[in-house]
Amino acid sequence: MFEAVYYIVESIDGDYANLKREDGADGGEPKLVARALLPAEIAEGVRVKYEMLSYSLA
Description:
The model has no long low-confidence stretch (mean pLDDT 94). The chain has no helices and 5 strands. The protein is globular, with a radius of gyration of 10 Å. Helices cover 0% and strands 48% of the residues. The chain has a single domain (5-57), classed as CATH 2.40.50. With 58 residues, the protein is mostly beta strands.
């Protein structure tokens, strides 16, 4: 069904974070995600897991 996808927080800019997919399936393009959708503890370089329509620290 929904497989887990892992990202690295590349940068944080105000209310948004740029996430880079670990497996490179997105062609290397960072994904812009609102910080409200991410765990409060995120920081640059942190690994994040996206599974079942939500983000968590990995």
